[in-house]
Design a protein that fits this description.
Layout (H helix, E strand, L loop, with lengths): L23 H11 L8 H14 L3 E5 L2 H11 L7 E4 L6 H8 L3 E4 L11 H7 L4 E5 L10 H11 L2 E5 L7 E2 L2 E2 L6 E5 L12 E5 L2 H11 L3 E2 L10 E2 L10 H11 L2 H19 L5 E2 L7 E2 L5 E5 L8 H10 L15 H5 L8 H7 L2 E4 L7 H18 L2
Parallel strand pairs: 2-3, 2-4, 4-5, 5-8
Antiparallel strand pairs: 1-9, 6-7, 6-13, 8-9, 10-11, 12-14, 14-15
Helix pairs in contact: 1-8, 2-8, 3-4, 3-7, 9-13
The structure holds pyridoxal-5'-phosphate (PLP).
The site of pyridoxal-5'-phosphate (PLP) has 14 residues, from α3 and α4.
Length: about 400
């Protein structure tokens, strides 16, 4: 019997959908900085930026206080402003669209593919106007968006591509590591992401112009070097205080050492889920393109509602009752009341909207044990079989 009907849950304690891996190595790294002369704006930031840029295979990396601030910086560096339009996916965290609003531009949503759940390049073409300035593709769940088509569209219309790679650190597209493809690429170091700095984010780019603009933007628009008087500095642009601290960078430096292992563990869990659910009637496993290698930030199970007696809410509640920390990623961004007030209407992206009704996120994070993974599989089998038609 299902736990929701008074039966015994698949596991005793609650398994969250994602969490960080912080070990003694990380703690030592942070303590080292706390004992050093600089706890913010010291040498650890630059060291982290260099190491990160090398990992991704780009020339420059500019660290920010969080991924959202980094996206704000990227929109500014790209020259996006008042009256411009920026195209992004409706299926993402709100920050991917909010960053356009921060600089006075209008987010425009292009519908997703029904199979990869990523933004559909054909839909991007349909919404391009004379006001379009940039595209912000999101590598949803860790599977890269179709970067080669997106870059072709951007070249044709002279647009800047800012990739939201908060989910796809370590993923590849046609053999290239994510971060090396777009004009600017953003990664987040929030604790549920691949590596963490507590809060933190970064932009990587091969353009020195973008890198310089980003550095100014994150530090009040102030320049300090190259003046005759040693105390002198000048504010040359309106900037923010969006700096990462050295304490955070120290954590990032030790985390990045473990990144390959983290990705490997995520891939193993995804593989277990795929094998377990590929032939389970009532669910659809995530489709992967041949040219992409996901880094599996999220694992999304789609419900084949025609084969089930109940809707998503009931499946969700039943899995929670089994102590599985399922979630839903994401509510279409323009459904939020704030966007509704701005004039966005339901029906804008029909594929994203109907897809949203059928999805459930299963737990996936490197610290999960085989027993944890098995308990998720057991719970899903139990609940789905119970509600099969
Ligand atoms: C996490 C996330 C962000 C924002 O990153 P923060 O570091 O939390 O500000 C942006 N976009 C997507 C898709 C994310 O998942």
């Amino acid at each position: 019997m299902l736990a929701i009907h008074g039966g015994k849950p698949a596991r005793e304690n609650y398994l969250s959908y994602g969490k960080q891996w912080v070990d003694d190595n990380d703690i030592d790294s942070v303590i080292g900085i706390l004992k050093s002369p600089y706890i913010t704006q010291g040498p650890a930031i630059e060291e982290f930026e260099e190491k990160f840029a090398r990992y991704v295979g780009v020339k420059y990396a500019v660290a920010f206080s969080n991924g959202t601030a980094a996206l704000h910086g990227a929109c500014h560096a790209a020259g996006v402003g008042e009256g411009d339009e920026v195209i992004t996916s409706p299926i993402t965290f709100a920050a991917s669209a909010n960053c356009s609003l921060y600089v006075g531009a209008k987010p425009v949503f292009a519908d997703i593919h029904n199979d990869t759940y990523n933004i559909n390049p054909e839909k991007i073409e349909e919404v391009i106007s004379s006001k379009t300035k940039a595209i912000i593709p999101v590598d949803f769940t860790g599977q890269p968006a179709e970067m080669s088509s997106i870059k072709d569209i951007a070249n044709k219309h002279n647009l800047v591509v800012i990739e939201d790679a908060a989910h796809s650190l370590g993923a590849t597209y046609s053999g290239s590591k994510i971060g090396s493809l777009a004009d600017m690429t953003m990664f987040s170091f929030h604790p549920v992401k691949h590596i963490t700095t507590g809060e933190g984010g970064i932009i990587v780019t091969d353009s020195i112009e973008y890198a310089e603009k980003l550095r100014l933007f994150r530090s009040h628009g102030i320049i300090k070097n190259n003046f005759k008087e040693p105390w002198y500095y000048e504010m040359v642009d309106l900037g923010y205080n969006y700096r990462m601290t050295d304490v955070q960078a120290a954590l990032g430096l030790s985390q990045i050492e473990k990144l390959e292992k983290f990705i490997e563990l995520r891939r193993e869990i995804a593989q277990c889920y795929n094998e377990a659910f590929a032939h389970l009637p009532g669910v659809i496993i995530p489709n992967q393109l041949d040219c992409t290698e996901s880094s599996w930030h999220l694992y999304i199970l789609r419900l084949d509602t025609h084969k089930l007696k109940v809707n998503r809410l009931e499946i969700f509640n039943a899995l929670r009752a089994e102590n599985i920390g399922v979630h839903v990623h994401y509510i279409p961004v323009y459904w939020h009341p704030y966007y509704e007030k701005l004039g966005y209407k339901k029906g804008l992206c029909p594929i994203a909207e109907s897809w949203y009704e059928e999805i459930i996120t299963l737990p996936i994070f490197p610290k999960m044990s085989q027993k944890d993974t098995d308990s998720v599989i057991e719970a899903v089998n139990k609940v789905i079989e119970f509600y099969q038609k």
